Amino acid sequence: MSEAREFLTEHNELTRRFFLRCGVTLAAGSAVAARAAEPLPAELAPVLEKLESYFTEQSKFGDVSRGKPIPHTLPLEKKKEVGLTRETWRLEIISDPENPATLGKQFTKKDNTAIDFATLLKLGEKHAVRFAKVMTCLNIGCPLGMGIWEGVPLRTLVWLTQPKENLRRVFYYGYHNDDPKQMFRSSLPVGRILEDYDDLPPVIVCYKLNGEWLTPERGAPVRILVPEHYGYKSVKWLTHIVLSNLYHANDTYGTQNNDVDSPMKTFAATLHVPGTVKTNTPIPVTGYAQSGISGLSKVQVWVSPSEKKWPADDPYFTTAAWTDATILAPPAKWGGELTADAIPKDTIGFDATGKPKTWPMRLAKAHWAALLPGLPAGEYTFRCRTIDAKGAAQPMPRPFKKSGRCDIEWVKFTVTG
C-alpha cells in the first residue's frame, strides 16, 4: 500500500471519529437540536467566519433574467408606461381563448377590472403568507439566493374568477417588451394551486422579499413564487394569469428540452477548499447543501489521490469511503437585511420566537463544515454529496441534467512538503 493510501485509510478513520464526536448532523424533519455537545475544532473558526449569510440581500442574488432589453433595465418612464411600477401594475386573469375554462368572472384591462397593486395588498391583509425558499436555476449547479418570500396565495386570485368547470391547468407570464417571441411562460396543474401537497407552502403572487418590496431585478412589482420548483416556475414581472382546460404543461422551458415537472433536488457544493496546504496539516472545508423536495439528512465528504482511477461501473462513487460532515446549526444571525435580523412574524416553518421548527429546512439551504486530517504530499480530489431524507445518495434519485443540476462536485487541491 502506498504512503498516500495508508494516510487516506487513517484519514477515513479519524474523520469518522471526529464526526461521531461532534454529532450534529440532523435528519430532515427532526426537531431542531442544540449545537454539538463539544465545540467544533478551532481550525474551522477562520473559514466559518467567512461563510456567506444564510439569507441573501436582494442586491446580491444571482440573476438569469431574460429579455432584450431585460425588463428591469428599462428607464423608469417606460416601466410606468408598461405597468412595471407598483402604481401602474395591472394583472389580467382570464380564461384561455384556445382551451377555455368556464368562469363566472374575468379581470381585464379592457373593462377596467384588472387587479391593481392596492387590491392585491388588500387581499394580503387577510391572506398573505411568507416562507423561506432557496432560488435555483434548473440548469445552473448553484443557488441564486435564499430569502423569505411574501405574497397572496395564487388560489385566492383564482377563486375570484368564480371557476365553474373545465379548469385543469393555470399558466402565467410576465412583461417581456410586448414581443410574443420573448414571452416566458410557466404553468401548474390547478390542483397544486388550490391545495398544498405534503405540507408545502402555497404558490403565491409575490411582492416582498426579506420584508421589503421586490426590486426590479427580483421581479418587481409582482412575480409568481412556487415553493418546490426551480426558478423557471417563478415568473418575474407578472402581468397575466390564464385559466385553461389544457391537459398538459405549456411552459417555455419545456420547449427548450427541459423537464418542467421536476421539483428541486437535494445536493451539496463547496464554499471553501484550500488550493494548497502543507503536509500533515488539518484541512478545513466548508460548503452549502440545498435541501430539495426529498429533504436532507446528511452531507458527506471524501478525499482521494487525483491519479486514482475509479471503476467505470460506479459513476456515482457509491462504494467510496464517504464520511459524514457536520451540518451547521441555525445561524446566530440570519442576514439578508431582515429588519432587526428577525424572522418576520408568522413565517411558515418558524415558531413564534423565530426559530425554525425543523432543521435543515426543506426547500432551503444549510451550511456544512469538515476538518480533514492532514495528508502527505501529493495531488488530491475532494468531493461532497448529500443523503436525502429518504436515504438516496446524490445524484440519485434523479441524476438527469434536464431535471436539474445535481452532479457530485469535485475540487482538486495540492499538499506540499
Write up what this structure looks like.
With 417 residues, the protein is α+β, with helices and mostly antiparallel strands. The chain has two domains: 3-54 and 265-416, Immunoglobulin-like, CATH 2.60.40.650; 70-256, Alpha-Beta Complex (Sulfite Oxidase, Chain A, domain 2). It contains six helices and 21 strands. The chain has helices spanning 3-22, 45-48, 76-82, 117-127, 154-160, 190-194, and strands at residues 90-95, 102-103, 115-116, 129-136, 143-153, 163-165, 169-174, 185-189, 204-209, 212-213, 223-225, 238-244, 267-272, 276-278, 283-291, 298-305, 323-324, 326-327, 364-372, 378-387, 409-416. The strands form five sheets. It has a five-stranded mixed sheet with strand order 3-1-12-7-8. Strands 4, 5, 9, 10 and 11 form a five-stranded antiparallel sheet that branches. Strands 14-21-20-16-17 form a five-stranded mixed sheet. The protein is elongated, with a radius of gyration of 24 Å.
Q: Which key features would you list for this structure?
A:
417 residues; alpha+beta; Immunoglobulin-like; Sulfite Oxidase, Chain A, domain 2; 2 domains; five-stranded mixed beta sheet; five-stranded antiparallel beta sheet; 28% strand; disordered N terminus
